[in-house]
Amino acid sequence: MPTIFKFLWVGFILAHSIDSLRAQAPTFKPHYVNITEVGGLFGRVVYDIAGSVPATQQVENRLSLTIQTFNGIQLKPRLALGVSCGVDWYQSALLAPVAAGVRYDLARSKKNVTLLGLFDAGYSSNWLHVDATDYKTQGGMMLNPGLGLKFGFKSGSALVLSLSYKRQNAKVTKPLNWGEIEKWEDRVYNRMALRLGMMF
What is d(CA 183, CA 165) in angstroms, rounded to the nearest whole number? Predict the structure, then answer.
């Protein structure tokens, strides 16, 4: 067989092998993703003791329940964009945040454990909250950056453990005393959120 034909035959075999490998390689397709979590909001609160002379402040640890679900699209193998919503039970306010969210895989180990970066930014409503007489609670801006660990299963789902910083603004209008025109309190809830959940 002439040398030129040998080269052509080898080239044909190589091209066919490459095409076969490409056909077998899985191609990524954007798909729906859900992460539902439950956990606690940990923080410390400083407040004035009413009627104390001289003015005295009290410091207390606080733990609140939080539930959150993220619904979005896995646009790339490491990037998901979507909307997160949930409920946060603070001691004197029940707020329901809705936010734009990002989930990004920062690193992955050989044992299918992934370091996950997360960020949510949005606004909380008071639609689940019930106020006492003459009180009015309003939600406000919310930020929630953090990190998590994603423990993947063969089925494609994963267990997610996350730790994040949550900053939540709120405003409370209070009943008026004699001679007062308006009375309100601006609140900033600074909490560490520890959550456990599932990713589907």
Answer: 30
